[in-house]
Amino acid sequence: MQTTVLEGYRAALAAKVAELSQTLRNRRLIAIENTPEACERIVLAAQREFAVVTLDRHSQLLREVKAALARIDDGSYGICESCEDAIKPRRLDAVPWARYCIQCQEGIDRGPNPAGAQFAHRLPLAA
Length: 127
Ligand SMILES: [Zn+2]
Prior knowledge:
The chain is mainly alpha-helical and 127 residues long. It has helices at residues 3-31, 38-74, 89-94, 102-110. The longest helix has 37 residues, at 38-74. The site of zinc ion (ZN) has 8 residues, from helix 4.
């Protein structure tokens, strides 16, 4: 991969790290909110639960993005970790932290255990 192209992805990934770090900081503030009203407590409990799930996904995505930055540094960026083919630029443009080519990713998503390390790709903000 050309250095200029690689640096473009690096910049996109660094921006994503900054964005996710900011979001995670804000979510933590929301998550500790409290109220003495019973009905509001129920609403807040639901919101907190949602916030925790979102927090988990953002944390997971942040790890994925940081791992992609590490792959740029070690020279393995843009190579599918499963079949070792080059990941198509169009996929990297959409999901710069992608570990797998689209074929392998679809295979993983269809697999017996689709939850887990690869779920970050299904986040709405991964588009
Ligand atoms: Zn592959």
